[in-house]
Specification:
By secondary structure, the protein is mainly alpha-helical. The protein has four helices and two strands. It has helices at residues 25-34, 36-73, 87-94, 96-122, and strands spanning 81-82, 85-86. Strands 1-2 form a two-stranded antiparallel ribbon.
Length: 125
């Protein structure tokens, strides 16, 4: 019985040139990260993602701090009830979930947009 070796067709030669116009994603990423422009793009992406995370976290914390401030500053609001439940419980119990969902949606949407911009700048398809 003869032994047969099965491999995937190569799209990049060992020296990094493309065969048939195709580039592998790893070879493309490595080549772009080695250039000064590629390093600049990667650093820019990292900074934009960090800035996005900090902005979303800060916005979320500010909204969370606004809930108890609103309860303390508006007279009689903390003493009111909705369907027999204290308003502050309803606000913190049910009002927090839309804030979490909106924060997560904004983060994911903007992070995807940042990564798409990076891919456009880096030349990846």
């Amino acid at each position: 019985m003869t032994r047969v070796r099965v491999t995937a067709p190569r799209s990049v030669t060992p020296n990094g040139t493309a065969l048939n116009g195709g580039r592998s994603a790893a070879a493309s990423l490595d080549a772009e990260e080695e250039t000064d422009a590629g390093q600049l793009f990667v650093r820019s992406l990292i900074r934009s993602q960090l800035r996005l995370g900090l902005v979303v976290a800060l916005g979320f914390l500010l909204i969370m701090l606004a809930f108890p401030l609103m309860l303390g500053l508006v007279p009689g609001l903390a003493d009111s009830t909705i369907a027999g439940l204290p308003f502050d419980w309803v606000l913190l119990g049910a009002g927090i979930y839309p804030v979490i969902g909106l924060s997560a949606w904004l983060y994911v949407r903007t992070a995807a947009r940042n990564e798409a911009r990076y891919r456009d700048l880096a030349g990846d398809k």
